[in-house]
């Protein structure tokens, strides 16, 4: 399985649940990683508040989208994140699946306020 | 006794993780390993309905100054109901880096399965171990060992030995230290009593935290369904029509 990367430009996400439609995956996919930009000193407009959370809730199918099972859920909070003196400009959410799913779907849940972010999705 | 299946979720700058396994079998043992790095000490509480095998405070990361720390905890759930299993780990800090690795094992005790535990760590090392458990109570046990190391200060491949030494099989490894804390989880099934330990090495010096736990195997005498099945078989054999 070759790594596939999909990037999206800066966008606004409103409070609520945005469905991720059923999407076919290539053969041999075993993991998925979502990377979102977050607040830095240089750009305080991006996902600025720790009170604003983003949850990625995923389901996967191993039979072509006929039946679905939970793959997991991860919640991340915004705001300035530092490691010592280093500012971390992104949040990463990742899933490693128990087997190789054929399809993925789910939802992105924004709570606590709207946010602006950009990012990328890595499928491997 | 066997490892059945495993999955994981992770994040960087996250507040909670919920890995999910589907198709689990009733009566099996589920083990949840959580590796974390966060700007304060303190292991996350056990997920609702789960028990803590060992969850020590983390070790302060020298590279980023106190109180930044890395930790490794092991939680478990005996006699799972079967179906979908989705424990949720809520970190002490809302912007944590962590992994939650969920694994299902078969053939282990459905009650009082936890036997021995140990943990170890350092603020600066390029190899380490889990500490050594006390002597296991029974011969046949599951040993689960996990390490998290050198969070954030490695570039790319971290070179953690995988599986742990010695005699272990790998459950999970993340070698990428660019964003997600490098970590490794191993297991083995032992057939004799004794003390247990696990050791690892990695490529760059930094903090690490490791934990180990052992779980007793199911015993035939404790399996009431098997006894009932045997009685039913005997009754059926003695019937005359």
Question: Which terms would index this structure?
Answer:
heterodimer; A: 124 residues; mainly beta; four-stranded antiparallel beta sheet; 10 strands; 59% strand; B: 241 residues; seven-stranded antiparallel beta sheet; five-stranded antiparallel beta sheet
The sequence of SSEs of chain A as H and E is EEEEEEEEEE
Task: Profile the largest sheet of chain A.
Answer: 4 strands, antiparallel
Give the CA-CA distance, first to last residue of chain A.
6 Å
Order of helices and strands of chain B: EEEEEEEEEEEEEEH
Q: Write down the overall mean pLDDT of chain B.
A: 87
Could you explain how this protein is built, in words?
The model of chain A has no long low-confidence stretch (mean pLDDT 93). With 124 residues, chain A is mainly β. Chain A contains no helices and ten strands. In chain A, the strands form three sheets. In chain A, strands 1-10-3-8 form a four-stranded antiparallel β-sheet, with no helix packed on it. Chain A has a four-stranded antiparallel β-sheet with strand order 2-9-4-5, with no helix packed on it. In chain A, strands 6-7 form a two-stranded antiparallel sheet. By secondary structure, chain B is mainly β. Chain B is 6% helix and 51% strand. Chain B has one helix and 14 strands, in the order ββββββββββββββα. Chain B has one helix at residues 224-238, and strands spanning 2-19, 21-24, 29-38, 51-54, 59-60, 69-77, 83-85, 89-90, 96-106, 114-129, 140-149, 169-174, 183-191, 199-216. In chain B, strands 1, 3, 4, 5, 6, 8 and 9 form a seven-stranded antiparallel β-sheet that branches. The termini of chain B are far apart. Classes of the chains: A mainly beta (124), B mainly beta (241). Chain A binds chain B through residues 38, 50, 53, 69-77, 79, 81, 83-84, 88, 90-99, and chain B through 5-23, 63-65, 68, 84, 86, 88, 94-95, 152, 172, 179-180. β8 (90-96) of chain A pairs antiparallel with β1 (2-19) of chain B, so a sheet runs across the interface.
């Amino acid at each position: 399985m070759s790594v596939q990367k999909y990037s999206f430009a800066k966008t606004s996400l409103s409070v609520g649940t945005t469905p991720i439609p059923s999407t076919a995956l290539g053969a041999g996919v075993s993991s998925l990683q979502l990377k979102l930009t977050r607040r830095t000193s240089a750009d305080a407009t991006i996902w600025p508040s720790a009170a604003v959370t983003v949850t990625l809730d995923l389901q996967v199918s191993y039979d072509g989208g006929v039946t679905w099972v939970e793959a997991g859920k991860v919640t991340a909070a915004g705001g300035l994140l530092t490691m010592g003196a280093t500012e971390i400009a992104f949040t990463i959410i990742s899933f490693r699946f128990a087997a190789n799913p054929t399809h993925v779907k789910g939802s992105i849940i924004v709570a606590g306020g709207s946010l602006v972010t950009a990012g990328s999705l890595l499928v491997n | 006794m066997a490892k059945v299946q495993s999955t994981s979720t992770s994040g960087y700058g996250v507040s909670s993780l919920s890995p999910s396994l589907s198709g689990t079998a009733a009566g099996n043992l589920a083990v949840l390993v959580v590796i974390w790095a966060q700007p304060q000490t303190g292991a996350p509480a056990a997920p609702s309905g789960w028990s803590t095998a060992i969850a020590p405070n983390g070790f302060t990361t020298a590279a980023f100054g106190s109180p930044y720390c890395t930790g490794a905890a092991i939680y478990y759930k005996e006699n799972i109901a079967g179906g979908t299993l989705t424990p949720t780990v809520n970190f002490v800090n809302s912007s944590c880096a962590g992994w939650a690795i969920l694994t299902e094992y078969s053939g282990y005790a459905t009650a009082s399965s936890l036997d021995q535990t140990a943990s170890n760590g350092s603020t600066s090392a390029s190899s380490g171990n889990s500490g050594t458990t006390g002597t296991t109570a029974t011969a046949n046990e599951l040993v689960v060992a996990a390490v998290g190391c050198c969070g954030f200060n490695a570039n790319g491949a971290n070179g953690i030995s995988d599986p742990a030494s010695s005699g272990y099989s790998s459950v999970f490894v993340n070698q990428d230290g660019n964003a997600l804390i490098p970590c490794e989880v191993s297991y083995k099934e032992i057939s004799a009593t004794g003390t247990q330990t696990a050791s690892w090495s990695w490529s760059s010096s930094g903090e690490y935290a490791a934990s180990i736990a052992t779980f007793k195997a199911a015993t035939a005498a404790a399996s009431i369904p098997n006894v009932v099945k045997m009685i039913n078989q005997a009754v059926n054999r003695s019937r005359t029509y």
